[in-house]
Known about the structure:
Elements: E1 2-3, H1 11-15, H2 20-37, E2 41-46, H3 54-68, E3 72-77, H4 82-94, H5 107-122, E4 133-137, H6 145-150, E5 154-159, H7 167-181, E6 186-189, E7 204-206, H8 223-232, E8 245-248, E9 254-257, E10 278-283, H9 292-301, E11 310-317, H10 325-339, H11 343-346, E12 349-354, H12 359-371, E13 375-378, H13 387-394, E14 399-402, H14 407-410, E15 418-420, H15 425-437, H16 439-456, H17 459-474
Parallel strand pairs: 2-3, 2-4, 4-5, 5-6, 6-7, 10-11, 10-13, 11-12, 13-14, 14-15
Antiparallel strand pairs: 1-3, 8-9
Amino acid sequence: MRTIDLAPLPLSDLESHLDEVAVRRLRDGIDAARGLLEGRTIWTVTPSAAAGSGPAEIVAPLVGYARGLGVNARWLTLDAPAEFLTISSRLHAAMHGDRGDGGRLADKQRDIYEHVLASNADNVVDEVRENDVVILHDPPTAGLAKAFTRAGAVVIWRCHVGAAQTGEEGQRAWAFLDRYLEDVDLVVASRPEYLPPYIEEARCSILTPSINPDSPKNRVLDLDDSWSVARLSGFFDGQAPFDAVPFIREDGRPDAFRGLQDDDADAGFGSPVPQGARIVTQVQRWDRLKGGLELVEAFASQIDTLPADAHLVLVGPRPDPSREAAAARVLGEIVSRAGTLPHAAAQRIHVLAVPTTDREVNATIINAIQRISAVVTQRSLVEAFGLTVAEAMWKKAPVVASAVGGIQDQIEDGVSGMLVDPLDAPAWAEAVRDLLLFTERAKEMGDVAHEAVRRRFLPDRHLLEVLDAIGRASE
């Protein structure tokens, strides 16, 4: 495993976003939990720390604030070969009711899964002490539970994925994971319907994710800074207001964005977004279930109903074809389809594959693009939660999103955003058009959305619920 170094975060940073009631509740909860945490190391294990990884983005601030409180918190990620990543992708797809690449989850795949995780556990298990807490995230880490349990740790498995109806594919994934979850003290999911069907209620808990308001992806960027980042990246036409935009890295070091390297500035598809365009943006991983291909089709089929200056921007991390073959294939399908559209539609579609060599630069570019967007959309076919929705809402963007999964927990339809059927292209276009035409309504919706995230989806609530989960698992 690899250790991810994070600077301690002062709780005052988080408290600056909260009202007095929330601050008092947070401090009281932390004071009450000090005895629970005393003398224990809190180990967090995620499959990766890559740009666009939801678990990694959720974990980073929680570990940082824990360290800021004097807790011995450590974050580890797996070292895994491509064949393990393929198995992980199959589990991810199956737990959303999707066949993915159609590959097997049989004895051969189990052998690879267990061998890779045993190798990872060997690197760290001797450092784990009796009564430490280990929080494992998502299916790729479930097989570590036995090793950490034998070391005397309290083990929590936090599953971020899932869907309401997963059918035979979901059963296949849960059957694969069954034996590993026997060694877990507590299973945590984002919604009740995402819990394993065979785990008794006493060993289950529900905990919704949160976003970090001070991360490079979410920190405040004014419009001049945002346009500077967008234009310096090469993805948008026009002169940048500033030659550099400063930001603080997660380890506390100051830095500045001055643009991408020449070999990093490939936009994926389409010329740079022209000046004067109003952009409708979807931020996504290149996963078929995110609905990127269907979004391109919807935009093209409804283009005559949208304002003439509306441009569609799909933006996500640039995949490494040698390790992320499925993501590269989905990106290729989207680019290929956009390239076959009539010129009138194709010239208004832009697919941006943002380099991931620097995770915080990647996040800064995403931040800037969301802030200059007229509308942010998340037209997923299936979505366990959808962090990109909360991130856009935090930036006061008007959001049009699919009425699926955890997106429904974030948006109050017609109040803090617009919910639409993911298969209804005319309804999606109508919602986008209305927000583009009625800008005052869009602004009011963005303001309400920001407040909803402040109250429900920041790390204060999340920290307290994690402490509660640790307490339950330790009983």
